[in-house]
Fold:
Amino acid sequence: MTSSASLSRIARRALLTAPICIMAATGSVRASDLPSINLGLTSYLDGVLPSGPGFYYQNYIEYYSASRINDGLGRRLPLPRQSLSLLADVNQITYYMPQQIGPGRLAFDLVVPTVVSASVHDGVGGAVLRSQTGIGDILFAPIYQFNPITFRNGWQLSQSFEFDILAPTGEYNASTAVNPGKNAWALDPFWSATLSLSKKVSVSTRIHYLYNFKNSDPPHSLGPDARTLQAGQAFHLNLAVSYAITPKFGVGINAYYLTQLTDSRVNGSDVSGRRERVLGVGPGALWLLDRDNFLFFNAYAESHVRNRPKGNEFLLRFVHHF
Structure:
């Protein structure tokens, strides 16, 4: 049996190597310095405006579970138990203007995430992993949706640009390891596109660049001298290939990838060994219920993980056009 002194040493070491935070807005429930980002939430037909201008409502139900947390070398953290089981609900409203401006139209986006439940265990009585639920960081953004481009070979390209702004509105407590919010502003602009190769086959992607601002109330796990934490800049993308079995039902393969490009900074100084990386790959399906209603399912298994939990994600997404 492990002694209480040994458990205390394990807890201190884990706290120094991996401060944890739930991230749920537009992005997967995760743990790390980085804020909530879109890791696999969107997939098939991502660049397409399927039903014309107007209002769109989207609801995402996301379940994430992990049984290990990796350090910067991909090794399991030295905790007696590592278990995360998280459920998030994300609501999104998007309005596409009917007027054309140049080769497309403007749109506006609002995303409100909620961490519905969070069950975490560390094997040391919650000394490292304690959680809370609640509203996450809200995202708002302007969008420019281009008109589709048809090539001579029959291929069609649909694309848009969006400038995501994440506001520090979520529940946050510096003494709690697992929080719905990050207590810092972030910018996460992206380009999304769908290339339809035929009536049956399409390839979609969403490519982001993430920039984070300072958290002036950093996690207590960084130590008593930490006054600010600024997560590093990062690149992340989603990729999906779909095949239509029928005009209304298709299947495919989906993936996401994240790599942190710069070190996180504590009190304005770079801290090495905290850069994050993850690859998620899995199957998916889409169902066009009718002209104004769409249903997506995606599953992901993670690998090549650094400074994050390594787990599995399951996502159900409903889209309705008014």
About this structure: The helical segments are 4-17. Residues 74 and 306 are 5 Å apart (CA to CA).
